[in-house]
Amino acid sequence: MILQFEGFEISPIHEGDAWKICDFAIANTDRLKRFFPVTLSQNLNPTLSKLYVQNRLKAFQNKETFVFTVKDSETRKLAGLVILKNLDWNTKQGEFAYAIDYNFSGQGLMSKAVKLLSKFAFDSLKLERLQIIVHKENVPSVNVATNNNYSWKKTLKAAFTPNGENPLDMELYELYKH
User: Which CATH superfamily is domain 3-133 in?
Assistant: First the structure.
């Protein structure tokens, strides 16, 4: 499965992505350290990234977590990651998390990627409710949710604790299959 839009493509993670994900994590450490500390810590060198990819491939096959890459179709540069996680097959619910390379921020790529992957989650995975949980000060991430018609539902009190910080309230956005 490959989804394409405006010179970019979204595809499931594969073994050849390990080096690109490592490079992405290192180049974007400052962007990832607060809200993606686990992903960052699992991709600090090529050996760790290879293990990360192997683990994510198993999770993908087991329908536990789906990691997708967003790449420039021409240069093959990794522009971002989109993760469909916290899947509950009984309630048909999943949560999107996403991160974009600083070189590609502000171009609306994540909004377009989440739009295509939301359709994929509804149509192919048969999910009925998708969630995005963001911190209110992360305006670009809030915009990804609102640009895709995810509706704000509520504030989740002390829902996430970044390393070395106090717990943060997070905002829950949801989209339901029509």
Answer: Gcn5-related N-acetyltransferase (GNAT) (3.40.630.30)
